[in-house]
Write a structure and sequence with these properties.
- By secondary structure, the protein is of the alpha+beta class.
- It folds into two domains: 160 residues, Alpha-Beta Plaits (2-Layer Sandwich), CATH 3.30.70.2540; 33 residues, no CATH class.
- It is built from five helices and nine strands; from the N terminus they run E-H-E-E-H-H-E-E-E-H-H-E-E-E.
- Strands 1, 2, 3, 4 and 5 form a five-stranded antiparallel β-sheet that branches. Strands 7-8-6-9 form a four-stranded antiparallel β-sheet, covered by helices on one side.
- Strand 7 and strand 8 form a beta hairpin.
Length: 198
């Protein structure tokens, strides 16, 4: 990841940052889906520089007010064209020009879409997979780690209109790893592709 663009939510006493995150991320998601469909580009990832999650103090978790969008090349970010996609949000989001990462990075971050299946769903899946009763599967499922209360953005499906939470887990890691991202600019629960962090 050699290039990036930084987006900052502009404070507004009349509008919640959560509302701005929803509008911004909806547009970003559409833009990433569009660039994947039109150009086959799925190497654009994001990070939240002010992200904070403390599993001991769940109330202190936050996304912050900044988003960085990373790509291997300047051309990829030019094709993404964030200024165009976010043109309706110029009063609420400040978009910096494309810049080189250079020697700014102090580490690497993995940013995932965090998904936690309800216990009932996990028990049904496990019972079917192992050929055991639902009750036996539920005993195993109840031993799992509890759901993490990570920061999230309230979203709404563009196709069905159904609301959902885009829960985000960001962690620092030792080594960089290249790969692809989903159309949220995130890793799935099973991938560990990194973006620069500072």
């Amino acid at each position: 990841m050699k290039y990036y663009q930084e987006l900052t939510l502009v404070p507004d006493p009349d509008i919640s940052p959560y509302f701005i995150w929803q509008k911004l991320y909806t547009q970003l998601h559409i833009a990433l889906a569009d660039i994947k469909n039109k150009h086959g580009i799925d190497s654009i990832g994001v990070s939240f520089p002010d992200y904070h999650y403390d599993d001991k103090k769940e109330k202190s978790s936050k996304l912050g007010h900044k988003l960085r969008v990373f790509a291997p090349s300047q051309a990829d970010l030019e094709k993404l064209d964030l200024k165009n996609w976010l043109s309706r949000l110029t009063d609420y989001v400040h978009i910096k020009s494309i810049a080189e990462v250079g020697n700014k990075a102090t580490g690497h971050a993995v940013v995932k879409r965090y998904r936690f299946k309800p216990a009932e769903t996990q028990a049904q899946t496990l019972a079917k997979k192992l050929g055991v009763s639902y009750e036996d599967a539920m005993v195993t499922v109840k031993k799992r780690k509890p759901e993490l209360k990570v920061p999230f953005i309230n979203m709404k499906s563009e196709t069905t209109g159904v609301p959902y939470r885009l829960s985000i887990l960001q962690k620092l890691v030792d080594s960089p790893l290249e790969g692809t991202f989903n159309t949220y600019g995130l890793n799935t629960m099973t991938t560990e592709v990194t973006v620069p962090h500072w």
